[in-house]
Amino acid sequence: MATPSISTRLPRLILDTVAAKGVNADALARRAGVDRTRLTDAHTRIALPRGDLLWENAAAAVGDPHFGLHLATTFEPGQFDLFDYLCRTAATLGAGLHLASRHLRLLHDGAELSLTLSESRATLRYHCPNHPAGPGRQEAEFTLARLLTFAREATGQPLIPFQVGFTQAAPRGRNVLAEAFGTTRLAFRQESCTLTLPRDMLSLPLRQADGGLHALLLRHVDLLAREATPPVGWRERLHAQVEEEVERGEPSLARVCARLGMSPRGLQRRLKAAGRTFREVTEDVRLEKARRLLADDSLNVAGIAERVGYSDARALRRAFQRWTGMSPGRYRRSTSAA
What we know:
By secondary structure, this protein is α+β, with helices and mostly antiparallel strands.
C-alpha cells in the first residue's frame, strides 16, 4: 500500500504558526524531511509520516503539549480553501458535516471521517487505518476541536457535545481539553476519536449557506477529489515490496524491481518524476513501521529494530533520532501519556 499523503495546507499552517512564535520553521521542516519552499504549491502533497513529524516537532519546539488544540481554536475560516468553503456554504450543519466526511481525502488520504446517527445523537468518528493505535495526539486534538469549532462558527450556536473520545491516554492537562470542548465528558483510550453532538443540531441552518455558490464549489471539489485519489498501481506495490524487504535488512533496489517486474532505471525514472528517491521511500516505510510498532508497549526497541531492518537497537535509535529529533523511548512516552 502506498504511503498516505496530506495536502500542503496543514503543514504550511503549522510552520507559519511556529514561525510566528519565533521558532526556526525552516529547520523544523528539514527535520521532518519537508521542503518548505514546496508548500506554496496547493497541488503538492507530502508523505503522511513527514506530516506526523511536523505535529510532534512543532509541539515540542513551542513547548505546548496542546499545540494541535490551540491551533484549531485560532484557525481562520477559509484556510482549507475549497474544502472549507464547500462545507460552509451547505444548507445545514448536517449537510456540511456529510461533505467533510466525503471529501476529507482532499486534505488527508490516510484518514477517514464518518457520521453515524442514533435516535438522539450524531457521532463523528475520525479514524486513521494506517495508525492502529490512533492518530497522534496533536492531530487528534486539532481534528476534533476543528470539527466542533466549525460547527459553532458555521451555525452561530454555542454547541456542547455529549462526549468527546480520544484514542490516547488521559493527559495531565485534561482540564484544558474540558475547557476547549465545553464539557467534562471526555473519554480516553477509545477505539477511535469521536465527537458526539445532539442529533437535532444537524438541522441547524448555516450562516453562509449559498445554493448557487455551493453547487459551483461542489463541481470543483468533486473534480479535485478525483484527481487527488491515490493512484492504484506501481506506488502501492513499491511500498508493499519495500516493507517486506525492510524485515530482511537493507532493501535492495534490484530485488524490489524484480518483484515489481520493472527495471531499476525505469523505477528510478518514475520516482524522479514524482520528486522522490528509492532511499526516501525506504526511510518513509521504515519510519512509519517503527512508529506503528512503538504504539505497542509490549514490544521492546530491539525487537522493533529487527522488524524494521536494523542490526540492533542502537542503529534504530540513531536513525529514529535523525528522523524525529527524539529517541524511540521518548517518542513512545510522548504519544502515550503525555
